[in-house]
Amino acid sequence: MKTINLSLCLLLLASPLAAIAATFHPLETIQENVQSFVKASLDPAGQYQISSAQIDPRLQLPLCSEKLEIFPQSGNIRPGRNTLGIRCPGSDNWTIYSTVVIKSFEAVLVLTKQLSRNDKINLEHFTTETRDTSTLQAGYLTDPNDVINKQATRFIPAGSVLYRFHYSEPTLVKRGERVSIQSGKPGLLITSAGVAMMDGIKGQQINVKNVSSQRVIQATVVNQGLVNVYF
């Protein structure tokens, strides 16, 4: 009776399978290469969460003898869903496409108290919270100095992320309000009384009626109740 060496049989069976596997490019290696490419394309100072490249596990790609070329379909890597091409430039050249989802985390300004239109925004109105900015539209705020002492352009409920379109420069001059008109040039200024014909923010040119002459002139808003006319 013949004795069969079980270990030898398993080795003989495994050898053809290993040889076949060696002819295909490991999908895990492709995923690692994509991960490295994405990380290298992002700001090293940022906080990110990167998903693994989505690759069909049934793929059997010839083993690539050259370094894989990876390229974003949109031209650059950005937070959100990205489609990337993976190309083998070798003799058995092939190209596949995969998707990677990038979450980018940043401290943004979030309202703690609701704001009504024309409310002046102060520190008490907001706090900072870490959010996935890939889910936010462009123009979210991160610097409190951008919004302090500004004026709300609309009603904004508590819990909202603050955006640039939520605020404007405060109205310093209101229509019908008495203002001081400074005219002339630096070192030789004449002050006269006027009435604003329209609302105005700092740096804006508005129509002002000179109380003495009754002439309507254009003047630049300088501060609350103060406009300038330079010659």
Automatic annotation (TrEMBL):
Keyword annotations of the record: Bacterial flagellum biogenesis, Cell projection, Cilium, Flagellum, Periplasm, Signal
CDD domains recorded: SAF_CpaB_FlgA_like
Highest taxon in the source lineage: Bacteria
Subcellular location: Periplasm
Coiled coil regions, renumbered to chain: none
Main location as per UniProt: periplasm
Residue ranges annotated for the SAF domain, each copy included: 106-168
InterPro entries xrefs: Flagellar_FlgA, FlgA_N, SAF, SAF_FlgA
UniProt signal peptide: 1-21
Keyword Methyltransferase found: no
Family named by the database record: Belongs to the FlgA family.
Protein function: Involved in the assembly process of the P-ring formation. It may associate with FlgF on the rod constituting a structure essential for the P-ring assembly or may act as a modulator protein for the P-ring assembly.
Protein name: Flagella basal body P-ring formation protein FlgA
Organism: Methylomonas rivi
Gene that this polypeptide is encoded by: flgA
